[in-house]
Amino acid sequence: MTSSAPAVSTLVAQISDPHIRRPGELACGMVDTAAALRRCVTFLNELTSRPDIVVVSGDLVDFGEKEEYAHFRKLMAPLAIPYVVLPGNHDERNAMRQAFSDRRFSAEGPLNAHLFVDDLHILLLDSTVPAQPHGLLSDETLRWLDAELHEHSARPTLIFLHHPPFLTGIRHMDVQNLRNAAALASVLQGHQQVRLLAAGHVHRTILTLFKGVPAVIAPGTSHAVAFDLDPAGPPAFQIETPGLYLHAWMGSAEGGQLISHGMSIGDYHGPHPFFDADGKLL
Prior knowledge:
The protein is built from 6 helices and 15 strands.
């Protein structure tokens, strides 16, 4: 019997927290984030199933400097896929607006944006608070989000922001999460078209539900926040295999399903066949 499952119609890649510094500088004195982003770009370009769009969910750079953003854009230039960006707490809003003057950011205020990719409506929220590590969605952003959801209620919607609106158990990161998660939940209430809430910030692969909506945190493209559930654990990072998400929309706007695939970034053996030419398991 052949499968009648719908094919993937739209593929959205999510990468997060590149933390690019000025050329030649290492993050935290030891992490070559530029080399890691180069590997990520190569990985994306070589995927057999090519994403339709790449979303970078914040902390593009480490100190919000003009030279860092120029370096980030140079590193991303070989990417053969369109990409969009949103800010994280390490980004600087005005410097980022200037660095991406070719993008559809407003002239002032939060760097919110939206786009349509096939059947999908993608919303990018600015959750940053200038000079602070924690997140907050401004009243302006919440009104804009509510208006977008009402205007495009028939489209399946993916929402991206940097700060997760839920706790992870890693205390030194949880104190930096989204401070007005209840306000976000209130806006989302009743909008059944929201299929995913996707964040960054914690540099780890994390899955949960946020008020009934599937929610994920993407791993970083280089270093990871150390997994430590001790409330007294110190802020720390470790070097793990970097990763990303591929969010696959299967079906049509009227009746589809979103599947999120966690991927490890790297050059691995394969793919290798399971069966030989006669159909025998190898």
